[in-house]
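Q: My labmate handed me this sequence with no annotations at all. I'd like to see what the chain might look like in three dimensions before we decide whether it's worth expressing. Could you predict it?
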Amino acid sequence: MKEVDIAIIGTRDQTALMRLAGVERYLIIDDDDPDMKEKVRGALKDFSADPLIGIIMIPEDWKEHVEDILKSIRGSKKVSTVVIGIPAGYTTEKENVKEYYQAYTRRLIGFNIEI
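A: Here is what I predict for the chain of 115 residues:
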């Protein structure tokens, strides 16, 4: 089985937390950066083109900036990178985060995983 890297595109706090968990590939983008949308798009394209990266995390509220790229990744016929939306900030819009990620995982791989 081939090992893959995990990468995160996020704010300073989000990337710091994931780096503590062992994520070594990251890009910090500030919410107030005037070029934030372009930087997020560029980072997602770069990370998804890297064959060593298997999972990319991105804040849920930034996914609207990259919907076309996400659609292209999902529609690819080859095995591709999985892009996971992470809760933005310290709260989440999802009432039951466990159920949200179980449903997300089921949609990605076709079966349930108990968390």
